[in-house]
Amino acid sequence: MLDALHFAAVLPAGIGLGCAVLDRRSRARAVLPAALGLAAMLDMALGWMLLPPILWAALLVATGILLAVGLRRSAGADEAHRSAGPASHERSMRAHRAIGMLVSAVLVVAMIPAGAAAASIGVHGGHDPALAPLALAAAAGYLGWSLHLAARGRADRGRRAALARLEVGAMAAMTAVCAAMPVLA
User: Which UniProt keywords apply (predicted)?
Assistant: First the structure.
């Protein structure tokens, strides 16, 4: 069952990357996190072990932090454009990607069997069993925000708006699938 869920998480990760690539204005701030998320999902689903899951989680956290720093820096430049228009939606999408990286990292760590994380880096122990409820809460909050963003963007027309809604939906689907894994493990 868990193997099927791992593979089910790859599809929305791939869709999210496709949306980021097709959105010509998104550049590296959308493509690189989406590619990293897909690489992590493929590595875990196929068992390649290019990196231990704890290192994937660290990369996801670092990427989320870098995205947040970039979002903060752009906030000063966008000060004159604080409307509910496209600039506001772009900031929301960038924040959604940053938080998505952090939630994904928590879910990756929550999926690591006890002792496996520590064994992969040469120490004793494992993750805290209290992490699964935290991961589920983070995923639930992220899913709620994703639904809000998708609903808010429904009035927007055009290719870019459709790609943004599809990206949000794909990230939400991947989060939902990954949130089921610690519960079923």
Answer: Membrane, Transmembrane, Transmembrane helix
Structure letter (DSSP) for residue 25: T
CA distance 175 to 185: 16
Q: Are 31 and 21 in contact (CB under 8 A)?
A: yes
In angstroms, the CA 59 to CA 82 distance is 31
Q: Under a CB-based contact definition with an 8 Å cutoff, are residues 182 and 114 in contact?
A: no
How long is the chain?
Answer: 185
- The pLDDT profile of the chain, 185 residues, written as one tens digit per residue, is 878 898 999 999 999 999 999 987 777 888 999 999 999 999 988 988 899 999 999 999 999 999 999 887 766 555 544 555 566 778 888 899 999 999 999 999 988 876 554 455 443 344 567 788 999 999 999 999 999 998 887 777 788 888 889 999 999 999 999 999 888 86
Domain boundaries, the chain: 2-184
Q: What is the DSSP string of 104-160?
A: HHHHHHHHSPTTHHHHHHT-S----TTHHHHHHHHHHHHHHHHHHHHHHHTT--SHH
Q: Which two tokens stand for residue 52?
A: 């231990």
